[in-house]
Amino acid sequence: MPSEWDSHTALTATGDGLLGAELDPGWVVGGGVNGGYLLGVVGRAVAETIPAKPHPLSVSAYYLSAARPGPAQVSTRLLREGGSVTTVSAELAQEGATRIAVLATYGDLGALPDDVATTAEPPAIPPLEECVPGSLAPEETRRVAPLMERFDLRFDPACVGWAVGEPSGRGHIQAWFRMADGHDVDPVGLLMVCDALPPVTFDLGRPGWAPTLELTVHVRAVPAPGWLRVSHRTRNVAGGMFEEDCEVWDSAGRLVAQSRQLAMQPRA
Amino acid sequence: MPSEWDSHTALTATGDGLLGAELDPGWVVGGGVNGGYLLGVVGRAVAETIPAKPHPLSVSAYYLSAARPGPAQVSTRLLREGGSVTTVSAELAQEGATRIAVLATYGDLGALPDDVATTAEPPAIPPLEECVPGSLAPEETRRVAPLMERFDLRFDPACVGWAVGEPSGRGHIQAWFRMADGHDVDPVGLLMVCDALPPVTFDLGRPGWAPTLELTVHVRAVPAPGWLRVSHRTRNVAGGMFEEDCEVWDSAGRLVAQSRQLAMQPRA
């Protein structure tokens, strides 16, 4: 049985050189379709275009207009095919309006040297059973964010005070993550995981939707099966914007993705 | 008298909808032309294309092939013109080969709200007179990196042990920065500053050129006149690649740019 993720990101050749997608309403959050899901759809389209380079290494997305559930078209253009990496430009459009523009360099993560000299530390999150499940969110929240039904999220209790009106003020949210249907996340799926949690501004006492201007994800390794740990931080809220840094660690203790996005502050 | 930076990034309309640049040999480092300089040239081309949105907010560059000094052509394509931000796609090419592909969102930094709620701390660098000037670099280094003549760099002594064969191993380099001719850096110039220092892998005892795959810069404010402080760090060297995070702080103590690049490890 295919995973929900595979079904929701399925693509069909439309005959005019484009790939057709059907954006599922289950990924709506606030006023539009989740940006990580959009990036996953584009990321899969790129992977299908260059089968010899199956994995995203770096993907940058610029968000131009809010997407809606329903049909979408992905166009891709080969910029450079190299021996170890290939770079592609891609756009996802609906009804003639571009939703996101993307640059992406793909390669084969399995072919990389296996040296690791990281000084980064995995997020210290209490055991699963001590964390706060996303399913405890109020009915009202779940109604405007059907996105949440896609995941099994277990929030670090120290970073979830915002849910009861007591944000920590540190600009930090972290959680255990897996897909609701229990299927494991592949490298393209990591593009989505980096934009799956609530905006880190929740933890600064600024609730509300935070539109992404730009999101770049570096995929550093194929995730091992099992639960992922996801951490979001911001350090510079200024000029109506903030950066959100995300790390994704796998069950083997490997840093598998690093991302940064520039987003607009939610309106008070 | 125009600044060296203005001269080296000057553009001329070529009549076929492109902008022509002349890449100056003074920006060569290792086997090619510095990637930050290339991004500055493209960044200026974008600014000239959309004069109502003079400042880069977010710029992502994918490096496809090594550039050489001499003529180059910049093409731009408008993706979306909005009320407060405009997004453009751009490419810089030489002899028909694309050197870098860029996505960029521009706006007016002066029109942003002036709230700042940063938890980031400016780099703690000793006073200028206690730092190590880049001009002390060996003749050999300066010959393969004429790039260094463009800047007045004063390295934090705690981060420059690599210059005498004693890297700290922390993956951290920081320095005071200004242009050699004393001219101040503008927001487009910040795109270059984020790729001006030696690769942070020097501080890990891995000398050599580190080719950039991808570089994204977020410009967060117009820099105040005077010396800048630039900090580079890496936390995850793995699979033959590393991320390099850069911050640029201005003389008024404001975080004016944040960037991250994904680069290939130098060969031993």
Automatic annotation (TrEMBL), chains A, B:
It holds the Pfam family 4HBT_3C. Gene3D superfamilies: Acyl-CoA thioesterase, double hotdog domain. InterPro entries: ACOT8-like_C, Acyl-CoA_hotdog, HotDog_dom_sf, Sec_Metab_Biosynth-Assoc, TesB_ACOT8-like_N. Residues 24-106 form the Acyl-CoA thioesterase-like N-terminal HotDog domain. Residues 129-264 form the Acyl-CoA thioesterase-like C-terminal domain. It comes from the Bacteria. This is Acyl-CoA thioesterase. It comes from Nocardioides flavus (ex Wang et al. 2016).
